[in-house]
């Protein structure tokens, strides 16, 4: 148990106000302006705490970019549109999207880039990487312009704060963060009826944990409303599934799982994404059936792209390239754990790679 500055701050808060929700704990650990995880560091890559698909291989971002560009053309190539990314990290995904779409006639002239980012540290890195494209930044989805929107989010929703509820009879106890000696521990609130979880009484038993993400549905509602009203599409890529059940709260530090309560502000905190409420909230935008990342990438041509790039490689770079392809697509690596939720306007063509998936 590391007594970090944020640990002391949280202990004082709990001592004054009582146990805090898991959502409040995650919010503080990730975004506290002085000691929050994302506010104080660049966590990405081999030298950080985790690595994302765009950092594994340029192929991921290139194919995402071409998919968005094809959707833009399928909807008549609007003369002005927003190209937005939520949680853009180092800007690697957006940079790969922009490189791959540079040759698509009219695409760059029509796009207006908006990055949805709360971290000042990461905004600075993104500004350097994407300087030639003069992106705009916001930390509020409501600021997205009311015009056609092509949107991507890779490993964004998993970092949104969650609440956990444990079934107890016909009621639910919330899992809270409480004081322990010397640090913090999980505790249960008194059981209460939860009308918002009444529909889960039929598929849970005593002791089961259901996670909800209060911030996720309003974001999906905003994105879906923009797309349904003005055109565009969304690709949401994350690990998770359909219909939350069980405790998926986790922490990662130096690429290894750690105790989420041990060192507040020093580890990345995430939970699996429940795509079902996102798809529901995005209506009237149309949600394609959920598809795994491996299947999606194969459908849009990652193996052909991998072979083309491999022709110029040999030795260790070739081995690394082959390993990256496997990591992104193989069912035992990221291929099955990560899912793709695609959103399009009513009556618009489905995005390439998403039109014949199966819900899970």
Report on the structure:
The chain is α/β, with parallel strands linked by helices and 360 residues long. It has a single domain, classed as Vaccinia Virus protein VP39 (Rossmann fold), CATH 3.40.50.150. Helices cover 35% and strands 22% of the residues. It has 13 helices and 17 strands. It has helices at 5-17, 22-31, 53-56, 58-74, 92-100, 107-110, 120-129, 216-230, 275-281, 293-299, 302-310, 315-329, 331-337, and strands spanning 20-21, 81-86, 111-116, 136-138, 149-154, 163-168, 171-179, 184-188, 209-212, 232-241, 250-253, 256-258, 268-270, 273-274, 286-287, 291-292, 338-344. Strands 2, 3, 4, 5, 10, 14, 15, 16 and 17 form a nine-stranded mixed β-sheet that branches. Strands 1, 6, 7, 8 and 9 form a five-stranded antiparallel β-sheet that branches. Strands 12-11-13 form a three-stranded antiparallel β-sheet. α7 links the parallel β3 (111-116) and β4 (136-138). α4 (58-74) packs across α5 and α12 (315-329) packs across α13. The two termini are 38 Å apart. The model has no long low-confidence stretch (mean pLDDT 92).
């Amino acid at each position: 148990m590391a007594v970090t500055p944020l640990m002391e701050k949280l202990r004082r808060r709990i001592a004054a106000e009582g146990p805090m929700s898991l959502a409040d704990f995650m919010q503080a650990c990730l975004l506290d302006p002085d000691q929050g995880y994302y506010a104080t560091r660049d966590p990405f890559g081999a030298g950080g705490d985790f690595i994302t698909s765009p950092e594994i291989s340029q192929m991921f971002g290139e194919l995402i970019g071409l998919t968005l560009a094809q959707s833009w053309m399928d909807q008549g190539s609007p003369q002005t549109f927003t190209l937005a990314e939520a949680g853009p990290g180092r800007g690697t995904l957006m940079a790969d999207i922009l490189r791959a779409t540079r040759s698509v006639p009219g695409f760059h002239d029509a796009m207006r880039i908006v990055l949805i980012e709360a971290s000042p540290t990461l905004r600075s890195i993104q500004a350097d990487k994407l300087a030639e494209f003069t992106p705009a930044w916001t930390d509020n989805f409501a600021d997205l312009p009311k015009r056609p929107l092509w949107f991507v989010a890779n490993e964004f929703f998993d970092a949104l704060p969650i609440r956990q509820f444990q079934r107890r009879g016909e009621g639910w106890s919330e899992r809270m963060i409480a004081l322990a000696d010397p640090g913090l521990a999980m505790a249960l609130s008194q059981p209460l009826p939860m009308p918002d979880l009444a529909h889960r009484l039929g598929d849970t038993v005593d002791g089961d944990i259901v996670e909800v993400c209060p911030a996720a549905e309003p974001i999906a509602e905003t994105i879906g409303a923009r797309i349904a009203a003005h055109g565009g599409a969304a690709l949401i890529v994350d690990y998770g599934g359909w219909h939350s059940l069980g405790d998926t709260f986790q922490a990662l530090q130096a690429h290894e799982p750690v105790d989420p309560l041990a060192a507040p502000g020093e580890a990345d905190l995430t939970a699996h994404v429940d795509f079902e409420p996102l798809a529901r909230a995005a209506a009237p935008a149309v949600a394609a059936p959920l598809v795994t990342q491996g299947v999606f990438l194969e459908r849009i041509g990652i193996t052909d792209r991998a072979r083309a790039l491999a022709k110029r490689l040999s030795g260790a770079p070739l081995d690394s390239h082959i390993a990256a392809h496997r990591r992104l697509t193989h069912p035992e690596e990221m291929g099955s754990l990560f899912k793709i939720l695609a959103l399009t306007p009513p009556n618009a063509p489905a995005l390439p790679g998403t039109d014949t998936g199966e819900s899970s």
